[in-house]
TrEMBL record, chain B:
This is YbdD/YjiX family protein. It comes from Pseudarthrobacter chlorophenolicus (strain ATCC 700700 / DSM 12829 / CIP 107037 / JCM 12360 / KCTC 9906 / NCIMB 13794 / A6). Residues 36-67 are annotated as: Disordered. Residues 46-59 have a biased composition (Basic and acidic residues).
Length: 765, 67
């Protein structure tokens, strides 16, 4: 890493402190010019925004007010896109104006720390795609599917309103503040802003949350691949494909990333098609039909080996593949939804919206819907990506609004499309697929009987439909394929076959969807294990210095084994859970993710307060308060609720009592061993909830204390500013997707500057 | 007709360039550009060395992927 040049001009981080080179054109659009451009409302501009507002308003009206038999999927697209545009144009500008106050005269880390490797100025549109690919994963594809139990409207409102007021705000602020601090990580910022106690609590919470998130993502894959020879074969083939790509890039043709990605993509498609052929053969079905426990063990062994292998061999090529797939799939899904425009017959609010005993996930709409959909509305995990990598690549300060806020809006759109795909399938099929086997009984007949007994309006499913769906997607059964991924895959296959290929292609589209979800998740498992291992090594290193050496193999292996053991234990617990696993664990995933968001927002709150912005503190305080209330209420109910389906300890007590009374079966647990497993699992889940919520309350409390202290000290100038010193910029680039007139003018001026004057010659190397 | 083709091909090239930027395939070119612009005295890393160094640094400094 390069060091910053010594001759820093401008002593403080405040505006107006940087003197840019007079020999160069201005590095920022003049404040007054930008203001007038912004506030001048031409008739065209007024008409455009009026049209967007009208269309958006009409779409919301169709979704929320009109109660027809069906609603067309296109209204979801209009409602979301119009709301995003309005949020981006108006709300994010309020944040920019009153909170972040970017100054394009200041150099970004990519400029003053430029090293051509980690710190590289990157075109804003490319960086937008890069950042989006880094934040989008399996989360926004799974959460909305599970939340569809409540009907489409609660999830839709939370995804769209949540992202505008909470998720995108978090991503933008964390990115901006990290950029002002040379690309420091969330953990480092927490320590600086909140002190030792808050910082340590944030670190421990992050580590635990990482373990839970990796475990539950892995559980989604296990559930998607269990008893599916086709899925196991094609997902398994990604390992040799990635190894081949790694060797190709390292030894055969270094640097030919695009070329190897295309080769890898073709091989991936071949693996999907080949999987269908292999699964048809008796030997293929024999070898690749694996039960969930075997797959879970396979994943644990894979996780350990993948995390100790060098990055070039497995992780880097997998990253290329998954970026390629991500962009392709999302564009395809958007196109398909717009072209096919499926009719949705799920009600706005389902029968389960007002109850707390839903079969897919237990608990009342508030707070559990808001934790079930984390990614897509408010995802704390993004704070780890928005601090660190992306801030080191930003060209100009003003671009953070487009990349940070805009990038998260994009992810929210992915979540909306996943929701549309999930609700476009038959409602009876949805419940047959997403309820645990303990309820459906596992066979098509019992599942159909159970679903029809729920008394859902308009639902009358036949065993034949369940069997036919399984046949169409090339699976032995679709009953109780929980975890969200199979449902999304069926939904996607259902929409895509109307677009390309018809019913004959359905099995391909289904396995294509399973493949890309598994690809994202396996990459996240590998990378998450590595990051967690590093954090652990660093922490142990405070006591045993040898552990801090990243190259010390025994230390790295031991810490990897500990982390894999930790998430592996949670994974096995979920796989073998007699209560169904994903439906008891998924709320924990959402709670963990949003507690991380609360931690990130707490850090932002303290920073904004220390900068002396109290009038607009509510912009941060609002999402923080909401996330805190939702997650703490959810945790409270998970810990203290007397309803066994909701409260971990209530369930624990019920099963302990049954065991003590000498019963040999209780509820959905049919054996004494299963009952003992429930007692063990609920205790672990309960205590994990306790630890998470306590750590998060500590972090939030320290942030509130720091904020109060900053308020008392306001105007005295005693609050320490942790920003890097302001350095003058020597480049210019527009802030958003389309340059404004003033920006184009300035760009033209910069075009005339001779190249040797343009970039600062770094003093290092 | 040929004008249409030219627009199509330049559009495709632009898309390919964008995709390679998003994938990070242009990292070596950007490194060379930086190396030239910052007036280093020594020769730049070769393409092979650069990519080795890049993945090896990822080994030593892992980054999370999102869920």
């Amino acid at each position: 890493m390069a060091t910053a040049p010594e001759n820093r001009s401008g002593s403080s981080g405040r505006e107006g402190a940087v003197d840019t080179d007079p020999a160069l054109p201005p590095t920022a659009v003049d404040e007054a010019v930008r203001e007038s451009e912004d506030s001048k409302w031409t008739p065209g501009k007024i008409a455009l925004w009026a049209a967007i507002s009208l269309l958006g308003g009409m779409a919301w009206f169709m979704l929320a007010i009109v109660r027809g038999e069906t609603v067309n999927a296109i209204w979801f697209v209009f409602a979301s896109v119009c709301t995003y545009l309005i949020g981006y144009r108006f709300y994010s500008k309020v944040i920019e104006r009153f909170i972040t106050k970017p100054d394009d005269r200041r150099a970004t880390p990519a400029e003053y720390k430029a090293d051509g490797k980690d710190y590289v100025r990157t075109d804003r549109n490319v960086l937008f795609g890069h950042h989006f690919a880094a934040i989008a994963g399996a989360g926004p594809l799974v959460g909305p599917v599970i939340a569809a139990q409540m009907g489409y409207l609660p999830g839709t409102i939370w995804i769209i309103v949540g992202v505008v007021l909470a998720g995108a705000v978090q991503d933008y602020l964390v990115m901006f503040f990290s950029m002002r601090r040379g690309g420091r990580s969330l953990g480092q910022m927490a320590r600086e802003e909140l002190g030792v106690i808050g910082g340590t609590a944030a670190l421990v919470a992050t580590l635990l949350i990482m373990v839970i998130i990796v475990a539950i993502l892995a559980l989604v894959v296990v559930n998607a691949l269990g008893e599916s020879p086709w899925g196991v074969f094609s997902v398994g083939m990604t390992i040799p494909i990635a190894l081949f790509m790694g060797v190709y890039l390292r030894y055969l043709r270094p640097g030919k990333v695009m070329e190897v990605s295309i080769i890898g993509f073709v091989l991936l498609m071949a693996a999907i098609i080949g999987g269908g052929i292999v699964a048809e053969t008796p030997w293929g079905a024999d070898i690749f039909t694996l039960d969930k426990v075997t797959i879970a063990w396979g994943l644990i062994v894979y996780g350990f080996i993948a995390a100790i292998l060098p990055v070039w061999l497995l992780l880097a090529p997998r990253d290329y593949l998954s970026t390629f797939m991500k962009i392709g799939v999302i564009v395809m899904l958007a196109l398909a939804i717009i072209v096919v425009r499926p009719e949705i017959n799920v009600p706005a609010f389902s029968e389960f919206a007002s109850r707390e005993n839903g079969p897919v996930f237990p608990g009342a709409l508030f707070p559990f819907l808001f934790v079930t959909i984390a990614c897509g509305a408010l995802s704390g995990f993004h704070a780890l990506i928005s601090s660190g990598t992306t801030p080191k690549l930003i060209e100009k300060e003003r671009q953070t609004r487009f990349i940070g806020y805009g990038g998260m809006l994009m992810e929210s759109f992915v979540a909306i499309m996943a929701l549309v795909a999930a609700i476009s399938i038959d409602r009876g099929l949805y419940f047959a697929m997403n309820a645990p086997a303990a309820l459906t009984g596992g066979s098509v007949e019992t599942a159909a009987t159970w679903v029809n007994s729920l008394g859902l309006a308009g639902v009358n499913i036949t065993p034949e439909l369940l069997a036919e769906t399984a046949r169409n997607v090339g699976e032995q059964s679709v009953v109780s394929r929980t975890g969200g991924a199979p449902t999304l895959a069926v939904g996607l296959a259902h929409i895509m076959q109307q677009f390309i290929g018809g019913t004959a292609m359905m099995s391909f589209w289904y396995h294509f969807a399973i493949m890309f979800e598994a690809l994202f998740i396996l990459t996240a498992v590998d990378a998450g294990t590595r990051v967690a291992r590093f954090m652990l090594q660093d922490s142990i290193g405070n006591f045993v210095p040898k552990f801090k050496e990243a190259s010390w193999r025994p230390g790295a292996w031991l810490c990897t084994a500990i982390m894999v053991g930790a998430w592996g234990a949670v994974l096995l617990m979920g796989v073998t859970d007699p209560l169904g696993g994903i439906n008891t664990l998924f709320p924990l995933f959402g709670i963990a993710n949003q507690l991380l968001a609360a931690i990130a927002l707490s850090v932002c709150l303290a920073i904004v307060a220390k900068r002396g912005t109290f009038k607009y503190l509510w912009i941060v305080a609002l999402p923080l308060a909401f996330a805190a209330v939702v997650t703490i209420t959810a945790s409270y109910q998970k810990i203290f609720s007397p309803t066994p389906a909701v409260g971990y300890f209530a369930n624990n007590a019920a099963f302990s009592k049954a065991l003590a009374e000498g019963k040999t079966e209780f509820g959905t647990a049919k054996t004494v061993a299963a009952m003992e497993a429930v007692v063990r699992n609920t205790a672990i889940q309960g205590w994990l909830s306790v630890i998470f919520v306590v750590l998060s309350i500590i972090v939030i409390a320290t942030a509130v204390l720091a904020t109060v202290k900053a308020f008392r000290n306001r105007g005295t100038g005693t609050e320490k500013d942790n920003e890097d010193p302001a350095l003058p910029s020597r480049v210019f680039a527009p802030a958003g997707l389309i340059p404004t007139a003033a920006e184009r003018e300035l760009m033209a001026e910069w075009e005339k500057v001779p190249a040797n004057l343009r970039f600062e010659r770094a003093g290092h190397h | 007709m040929s004008a249409g083709l030219a627009v199509l091909s330049s559009g495709f090239r632009g898309f390919a360039r964008y995709l390679s930027g998003v994938l990070g395939a242009d990292a070596y070119a950007k490194y060379l550009e930086h190396h030239r612009a910052s007036g280093h005295s020594g020769p730049p890393l070769t393409e092979r060395e650069f990519w080795r160094d890049r993945t090896d640094r990822q080994d030593a400094n892992p980054q999370g992927r999102c869920c």
